[in-house]
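Chain A, query sequence.
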Amino acid sequence: AVVSTQSGHYGRGLVPVLLVSLNFNVVVSYFTEVPAKKELCFFDNVKSGTKLSLTFEVAEGGFLDIDVRITGPEGKVIHESTRESSGKYSFSAHVDGDYRYCFSNTMSKVTSKIIMFNMEVGDPPKDNANNIDQDHDILKDQVNQLSNVLFSIKHDQEYMEVRDKTHHIISNSTNTRVVWWAFFESLVLLALSLGQVYYLKRFFEVRRVV
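Chain A, predicted structure.
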């Protein structure tokens, strides 16, 4: 996968965390930061008929939302969604060329977003002769199916880890706000109590003078 941004930089802030191949499928997972008012794009060059699957999760930043868009070689929009926290979308390449998937944070004026995503690129389609040979190789088919299941389990584990981290951050943020709010309420109550004592003291002092 190749990365580009609206400002023309390549690969900045991109952290790969997984590169595995069991049945010659390419699965790459990344953590990357999408700055405010920016759009970060990646693309894969694949052949017609190749299966692709994009999975993403917003880990940190703002309201944990991001705009996602997938386009084909002709610029045709294959998938588009706005303000998504997570998602998974699979499709097959209809023509040869570059398939681009972009994460846009243009709706945010200040806050950057950190996202985890992976794009699974399947094997390119084979000719009829190879398909016939593969039909007779039952063991290979079973191994490939098992490999796909393992990939799916791995993706689910990564997804749950990110969600757990996200919920932990939200929980800590909520607890911090509750503590500060309770502290503020205590200060207000203390100020009101002192004000009432002072007012009553002044009131009785005036009555004695009269």
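The radius of gyration is 28 Å. The helical segments are 128-135, 138-209.
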